[in-house]
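=== RUN LOG ===
request id: a7f3
mode: sequence -> structure
chains: 1
length: 568
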Amino acid sequence: MQKRWTHKLPSDPSIIESISTAINVNKTLSGILAQRGITQFESAKKFFRPQFTDLHDPFVMKGMNEAIIRIDLAIAKGEKILIYGDYDVDGTTSVAVVYSFLTKRYSNIDFYIPDRYTEGYGVSFISIDWASNNGFSLIIALDCGIKAVDKVKYAKGKGVDFIVCDHHLPGDEVPEAVAILNPKQGDCPYPFKELSGCGIGFKLIQAYALKHGIAFAEIEQYLDLVAVSVAADLVPILDENRILVHHGLKKLKSNPNPGLRALLEAYAPKPEFSVSDIVFFIGPRINAAGRIADAKDSVRLMIADDYSKAKQIAELVNQHNIERRGFDLSITEQAFEMVEKDDSFAQRKSTVLFHNEWHKGVIGIVASRLIEKYYRPTIVLTESNGMATGSARSVDGFDLYHAIEACADLLEQYGGHTHAAGLTLKLDKVKPFAEKFEQVVASNIQERSLTPEIEYDASIALRTITPKFFSVLKQFSPFGPGNPNPVFMSKHVWDVGDVTIVGNNHLKMSLTQEEGGRIFKAIAFGLGEHYDKVAQGISFDICYTIEENHFNGHVNLQLNIKDILFKN
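=== RESULT ===
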């Protein structure tokens, strides 16, 4: 699928000149900074040198004071506290952080992760009954609960209080909890709205530490877990998240949580870790427990304070991930086949697939695979407990959550974000839902959103890429949503004669842009179809990021090619 190449709007030249002079970087890089709203020396300083002193006061968050008072009361009275979180990476890291911190100060605590298959997403009636029957009187719900109005009311009737720590969008009505910590509440003055669920859990323990005179170092030890949540949940790596991830990645390298250390034993050694390492290696393994078996395994891994114990649990979690991969591959093949056999698919603006035997734990991954291949808002449904349950994924520029909300009359339950959501409906509503969802998407999506887009930051000559250039560029990290790795475009490059196809249809090349000029190693994932033209020495344009390639103890700069364009 040919992508659209779009040059990001250049900034005012006077602003570029000003920031270039202020921090002594070249105009290409200062232009990229300006595109990202970094136009003053002070904002550049905060960007390049993230400091804990720039974290926001947790007590500015609506409900924080009430939450700490209620936790203090529970501890003073010897109440049983239940730390509750969803079964994904964000939920399990949230539980691990808050549980680990509080158990160092109070022992009458346990944790609970709902079962994906018998309880579903978020707070469940089953969990409330379990909590009540086991004498718990306070539940701290993390990464879920903002829409659990009926469940929190039910719990209240059983003498169980809730503190809700969530980052999902609130509905028209919020639960009658003792406290709700969610910056997305309309009347919450907290200045940063995009924390992960675990990030809100971190703010909770930060507030507790401030009130009780506990040194910041006591909570700093959890930053690698917070970084994992931010990366895996794809929240913007801006503002407070940038600070948390910057320091969390350093801790992941220097002194990781025992459970994360045990997972990383199977990973190739690296001088430092990136957000991508979390997204493609750590996150899927933590998620796999909840997809295939019991997400409590992931929490047990992350709260283990003994490395030998953590290693045993890591082996189990890795085994879950191997099983998850098997389901993922077979179901993805079936999904592709269903699409290819459907003659009407080419006319649709959305993809909705249902199969009653698909494994519920991997349908979100399958939805993402369908997006990669067909690029349209996608929902994959399977049968679970007599209902159709599904995961939804979107394309850039289309608000998936609101499209699903427009079909709420056909749904039993739904929730999520602009780009990802979950939903449950009755089996007989699957077909009418698919039809209505298609109507909503077709009426609202712009045609340009149905073609994948590469936005590039700057057009440069390859000779621009010097060691000093890359040294500054590297400091733009951590990269992720809100702060992507800068993409460059270079014209009229060619391979010097050693192009090969490696792995699963990837191109490995050595590129130059001028006779006798510097040669850059390059990798183009999934672009093997261009092999013949590249091998003929025909010149082409490229969009790419610049990265360090570490292999056998050697380090060299490498161009990671995002797309190739031959001029006809």
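=== NOTES ===
The chain has three domains: 4-49+454-565, 58-318, 342-450.
The chain is about 40% helix and 20% strand.
=== END ===
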